[in-house]
Design a protein that fits this description.
Blueprint lengths: L9 H22 L8 E10 L4 E4 L6 E4 L7 H7 L7 E6 L13 E5 L13 E6 L2 E10 L3 E5 L9 E11 L2
Antiparallel strand pairs: 1-2, 1-3, 1-9, 4-9, 5-8, 6-7, 7-8
């Protein structure tokens, strides 16, 4: 009795390979942890304005560590990381109302220069004011012969923020 090898019909090879690839991807995705509310994560990020100007980054420094959904982060950032996979880069765009809010004109005040005593007052200087027992930071935006205009809005208020984020560690909550 003679035994002969039969060659696989090429028409069956490609579908078999595709099925194996799909199975591999499904198993890989199932094993890759994803970020959920309550997880403590570590991320690297770069934050930019819509015009591309970088306003903050921790690349090359320590990671940003926080618990998702705990209120430690601005709402848009917190929501943007949910569902991310480990080492997955993602860009999120956060409108002002999900970041630091819109600019509140009531937080832009004129203060007489006499309130500063003999101190030299210049635009761009940072000042603090105690309000309700808390220190609030403001930036002097203009100075004339009698007054200084101080903006007590958060520095990033009124801005759409764009973050490039990579989650580098997930500790399931």
């Amino acid at each position: 009795m003679e035994h002969t090898k039969k060659a696989l019909n090429p028409i069956y090879i490609l579908p078999a390979i595709l099925i194996l690839i799909v199975i591999f991807m499904a198993v890989s995705n199932a094993l890759t942890p994803t970020v959920s509310v309550g997880d403590t994560i570590k991320v690297y990020y770069t934050g930019t304005f819509a015009n591309g100007t970088v306003f903050d980054s921790n690349i090359g420094g320590p990671t940003l560590n926080f618990t998702v959904g705990s209120g430690q982060m601005i709402r848009g950032f917190d929501q943007g990381v949910i569902g991310m996979k480990l080492n997955e880069p993602k860009t999120i765009v956060i409108p002002a109302n999900e970041a630091y809010g819109e600019i509140n004109p009531a937080l832009i005040v004129k203060v007489p220069l006499s309130q500063f005593g003999n101190q030299t007052v210049k635009a761009g200087m940072t000042v603090s004011q105690v309000s309700g027992g808390q220190s609030v930071m403001g930036t002097i935006t203009a100075v004339n012969s009698t007054d200084a205009t101080i903006d007590f809005n958060p520095r990033l208020a009124g801005q759409t923020l764009i973050f490039n984020i990579t989650v580098v560690n997930i500790t399931k909550g």
